[in-house]
Inverse folding.
């Protein structure tokens, strides 16, 4: 005994991303770390923008009494107000600080939101492929994930989502720009989604909340912008972090914004705050809250990632890989040559290249490449990608 | 609908500490904030030790690539090693970094530990009075709290705890120095507890883990030291934070240490790490991990709190309040004159003094004073305390 049976199952089914991480450590131990091309982790390799260090130093030198003490569990009022001011412009809906709760990263925010929404037995809909941790997040609060398919280009299939909504559905999670596909759902899709959710909520007699997990909002290419869910559906909640736009994933700073016209909006914010406390987060880290307030609207330059996308996308398609061109985030999600994602990821490992099989995102037959990786590594990997696909030539 | 039924009940039953906080805000609005004596919150008023600012600045100026990026979910290896080295001395059991998981404060650590240990329906034993959030923590993971009484001086009642242990018992939580009583459980109690838990585990056929929540370990007075649970019982887990010893509660930095000889120790550490990720914490904040590594063994001077304890304890006992002299933490837990803690706390509010009724800690008939408060406020409050007890003279 000891560790719970439930957690033992979790450990056994431990995520593919983690398994790849471990496989990488083994390969690195044998061949030397400089030889392994690790595309398995979404850990930004671009440093925070220059303004970050200046803001951090300013905050560190600020003379404020009890500046590392507790504040309201929702976050500092002035930080929430700064976030609200920025979001009002970005999302096209007027927000106040009362609509914002500071969170320990998007993962912390997602858990606080789901704890506020879910009763045991409730369902949360998501579209495949998806970030598998969503399943754990729903389960944390007695809920379960119900999966809908996407269209061929990985756009949301609104009809497929609709078919999954029933009286137990508390929320739909969307993630755009998407991990693992890099897809940005277009405005027409988000509008259609909003209309469908309104109709589905009437049908079931229960408001389905739209939870938009959007930490990659500012990592977009070629003039693409991410449509506002707030403009499309009032019962919306935006969850995000500064993990990607400011390259601060280790600092766990993010926030939740509740549409001011969402059903139960005020109670929902209060519930998210209580959830933040009861889950043990208590509040988002104090110092990074103050830093974030000074950097609303600042972001790393997505061109740094676009260069990598262009290079890898161009080379891989030239080699015969079939892959939807990503519009944002820093992932490629190609079809696995031969059709078996596990077999293909193992073939890549033979080339000292680490990627994550599609089944790690609920969609076998594909694999994910996280190209938030230094350009030299990308160059070094190309021959390996070429040899791997050659081994599967004519097999799918 | 909207917010879950379960969360609605939480909001309605919202903690007494929070209610006092709200009552305080109302009183401050009417009478002016400078008039209200707020003893309701355990928010350290002592600033972090001088070494903290130096360490923070050093870490902020350190040239380390990706210093705000993801690290292993367990924390930086060098930070875990620094904590382990310090704990090995403090707890008298040799630890390595592999026995330590960095956490988002003690609240984050407690949740990760309970998620690792609990299956639905499991029980966690705690002693009354207790920090009520423990109930929420157990419930988060499908468990429930079972409460044991304490002795007259608030020392643990080992026999009472033993009577609550059955086959569903996964863990016992102890908290020393204690919130709300300020009691430090003596060595003989901890030894007896260890022996009892070993026997109880044999009796039920299930190892009962001892989870020691000890953020106040370094806030102790008069030469008292906090005995090591690790020395008394191998199946022990220490959960703590730097919220009190470094006065950093807003920064959410703490850790979990698993006894190297605990049953299932290695799997348990792995499970705590997965729980940290799945709950959405992902990892303890990166920058504060590095700061904490430089400050192991550093603490605020408890004499700053002892002065307040001596003043309030001396004055209150002189007025006729009956209160156990605290040996640590920064709380007094007097008997409510008249016996009704709600009535007495309301009488204190009439004097513009805020305290928390004992029922907020599972023990009606007492009230909690958090004396982590500026000395001028303590002086200002004395007349009010005197008038309040006078109103209940001869009534209990």
């Amino acid at each position: 005994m000891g560790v719970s049976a439930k957690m033992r199952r979790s450990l056994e089914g431990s995520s593919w991303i983690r398994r790849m991480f471990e496989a990488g450590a083994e390969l690195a131990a044998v061949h030397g770390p400089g030889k392994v091309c690790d595309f398995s982790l979404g850990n930004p390799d671009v440093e925070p923008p220059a303004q970050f260090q200046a803001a951090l130093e300013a905050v560190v030198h600020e003379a404020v009494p009890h500046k590392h003490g507790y504040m309201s569990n929702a976050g500092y009022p002035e930080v929430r107000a700064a976030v609200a001011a920025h979001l009002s412009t970005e999302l096209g809906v007027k927000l106040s600080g009362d609509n914002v709760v500071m969170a320990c990263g998007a993962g912390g925010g997602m858990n606080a939101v789901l704890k506020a929404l879910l009763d045991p037995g409730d369902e949360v809909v998501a579209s495949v492929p998806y970030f598998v941790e969503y399943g754990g997040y729903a389960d944390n609060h007695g809920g379960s994930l119900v999966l809908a398919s996407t269209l061929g280009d990985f756009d949301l299939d609104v009809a497929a989502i609709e078919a999954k909504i029933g009286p137990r559905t508390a929320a739909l999670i969307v993630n755009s720009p998407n991990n693992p596909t890099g897809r940005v759902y277009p405005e027409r899709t988000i509008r259609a989604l909003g209309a469908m959710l309104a109709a589905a909520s009437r049908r079931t007699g229960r408001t389905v909340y739209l939870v938009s997990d959007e930490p990659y909002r500012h990592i977009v290419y070629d003039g693409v912008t991410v449509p506002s869910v707030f403009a499309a559906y009032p019962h919306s909640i935006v969850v995000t972090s500064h993990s990607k736009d400011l390259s601060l994933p280790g600092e766990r700073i993010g926030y939740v914004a509740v549409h001011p016209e969402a059903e139960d909006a005020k109670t929902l914010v209060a519930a998210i705050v209580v959830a933040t406390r009861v889950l043990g987060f208590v509040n988002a880290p104090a110092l990074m809250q103050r830093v974030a307030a000074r950097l609303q609207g600042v972001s790393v330059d997505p061109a740094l990632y676009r260069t990598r996308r262009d290079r890898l996308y161009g080379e891989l398609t030239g080699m015969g890989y079939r892959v939807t061109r990503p519009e944002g985030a820093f992932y490629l999600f190609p079809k696995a040559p031969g059709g078996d994602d596990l077999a293909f990821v193992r073939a890549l490992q033979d080339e000292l290249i680490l990627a994550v099989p599609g089944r790690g995102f609920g969609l076998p037959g594909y694999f994910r490449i996280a190209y938030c990786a230094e350009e030299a590594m990308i160059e070094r990997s190309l021959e390996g990608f070429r040899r791997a696909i050659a081994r599967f030539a004519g097999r799918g």
The two ends of chain B are 46 Å apart (CA to CA).
